[in-house]
Automatic annotation (TrEMBL):
Gene Ontology CC: one annotated term: ribonucleoprotein complex
InterPro entries in the record: Hfq, LSM_dom_sf, Sm
Keyword vocabulary terms for this entry: Ribonucleoprotein, RNA-binding, Stress response
Protein name: Like-Sm ribonucleoprotein core
Length: 164
């Protein structure tokens, strides 16, 4: 019996597919096969990802055309001098840089590697937050620390580090 992935896993896999190939063209059945999900789950998955702003897609007869959504970045966040010094110190201690204003773009591969690990988030306003990365999407990070679950908006972040 074939084992199917969860919609969350399929979502991550579709993002990776689009990162590698730029777009997907094919039938619902072909996409379902590539993502290892049931064909009836494809349309809800696409609608979810479209509403989240991750993809744009269209159906022309029996063919799907799926592309990553493009967006115009806002003012790039820059770390303060204090944050730059602390980041350099953390990197010398063996931490790894996930995302920073001087790296550009969304670092989804790095965030997937950091899932479940302790991360340090440095904010544009000079504050910082430590906790475990529980999930992420295009606009937010879900973290957990001693205060409980925390939703962090990415536009407020200058840099993220974690220890490998």
């Amino acid at each position: 019996m074939k084992r199917y992935k969860t919609l969350e896993d399929a979502q991550i896999e579709l993002i990776e597919l689009l990162e590698e190939e730029g777009e997907f063209r094919g039938s619902i059945e072909e996409l379902a096969e590539r993502l290892s999900v049931k064909p009836e789950n494809i349309k809800p998955l696409l609608q979810l990802m479209k509403s989240a702003g991750d993809i744009v897609y269209e159906e022309i007869e029996d063919e799907l055309i799926i592309r990553p959504a493009t967006f115009i970045p806002l003012l790039p966040p820059t770390p303060t001098e204090e944050q730059k010094e602390e980041i350099e110190k953390k990197l010398s201690e063996g931490y790894r840089l996930i995302a920073s204003s001087y790296m550009g773009g969304v670092q989804s591969r790095e965030l997937r590697q950091a899932m479940g690990k302790r991360i340090i988030v440095f904010f544009r306003n000079g504050s910082r937050l430590e906790g475990r990365l529980k999930g992420f999407d295009r606009f937010t990070l879900k973290m957990r620390n001693y205060r409980g679950n925390i939703l962090v908006y990415k536009h407020a972040i200058s840099t993220i580090v974690y220890k490998t």
